[in-house]
Amino acid sequence: MLPHSRSPQSRVPPRQFGLRATLVGFSLALVLGTLLSAGRAVAQDTKPSVPVADAPALKKPVQTKNSTPEEFKALATYKPTPFEMTVRPPINVGDGVFVEGLRYPSPYKSGYPERNDVVRARLFRVEKPQPAAVIALGGWRFDPLMPELAQKLAKSGIQVVHIDIPFQRQRVPKGRKSGELTLSADLIQNEKTFIQLALDVDRMVDWLVRERNVDPKKVGVLGTSLGGFAAATLYGMKPERFQATVVQLAGADVAKVLFNGNWLTRHIQSQLREKGLTEREVRKRIAGMNPGTWADPKRKEGVLLVAAELDEIVPMYTVEDLQERYGGAELIVMPKAPHRAAEGLRAALPKVREHFEKLLLGKTPPTK
């Protein structure tokens, strides 16, 4: 309302009352008409700048088929644009390692702006780190071990960034479960999620190079389980970006994991079969996401595979398939270990550290 005042002592002479009342009525009508017109204009033209909750996926042209590997690679190619990185003050977490919380906008717009399209990450480093970095990607839904491994790896002097995979941890949209939109029977959504992850990782690497003095030729990627599949694909697909990778509990073929009847992905297998999709058809449709698609035997020196002998999720034969595709890359097998082999992964960490130190820092592994 517009401010107004009226003196309680003011009076209108009787002979002027009729004219004054007419003028007042006309003025009120004019003001009300103006306000109503403005109200309609505001209702038509104004949109809230920030949604109050995660909106459903934005309306875009409907994608009816998965991309070819070449199209997939093009979509997963980052084009640098200005953005703001939020950095929390470093916290000493022990053993000379500090952690900084990072937050930045995803280059990919998934339609869930408040949560999924804001990337959360943690940078582990020593006080005077080396100009080298490793991107660490955890498993599906929840992986409490990866931050621990990242912290221990950072003691070597390498800067290690643990990035939340899309639709997991703090990136879960309201009303959803962690990982529900990360991996499912919706093969097109799976592709979009991986493309977003690839772009998120690229943006982080660019920032590390620009702001943390990382040598662009000294960058590696580490992943476990689903993060291992992503790490292997990123390493193979982006040879100009990654010089080393450690792939834990992952192999050459995502379809093998979806269709082997294991307890973790059995529900996805059932839904895919309800859609009339076979393992072979799924493998063809998600070829761009498969590490085996991008494996180059000439780059075997940069690859270290870590597998569990009794892995019920990722069969040994698909790990050995990836090893073969990389021309006989080094493979560490945790004896009699299942997929959730936390102690085995901790035991393998010295070899993981040696691998990255050799390729990113130029250190010679100790002789046996």
If you had to describe this structure to a student in words, what would you say it looks like?
By secondary structure, the chain is an alpha/beta fold. It has helices at 17-45, 69-75, 145-154, 187-211, 226-237, 254-258, 266-274, 279-285, 291-294, 316-325, 342-361; strands spanning 86-87, 91-94, 97-105, 118-126, 133-137, 159-163, 219-224, 244-248, 303-308, 330-334. Strands 1, 2, 3, 4, 5, 6, 7, 8, 9 and 10 form a 10-stranded mixed sheet that branches. Strand 9 (303-308), helix 10 and strand 10 form a beta-alpha-beta unit. The longest helix has 29 residues, at 17-45.
Kindly report the CATH topology of the domain at 121-252 and 290-361. Rossmann fold
Please summarize the sheet with the most strands.
Answer: 10 strands, mixed
What is the helix content? 25-40%
Q: Please give the CATH class of the domain at 121-252 and 290-361.
A: Alpha Beta
- How many individual helices? 11
* C-alpha geometry: globular
Structural class by SSE content: alpha/beta
Low-pLDDT residue intervals, each spanning 5 or more residues: 1-59
The CATH homologous superfamily of the domain at 121-252 and 290-361 is called: Alpha/Beta hydrolase fold, catalytic domain
Q: Strand fraction band? A: 15-25%
How many individual β-strands? 10
Output the radius of gyration.
Answer: 28 Å
Ends: how far apart?
83 Å
Which architecture of the domain at 121-252 and 290-361 per CATH?
A: 3-Layer(aba) Sandwich
Order of helices and strands: HHEEEEEHEHEHEHHHHEHEH
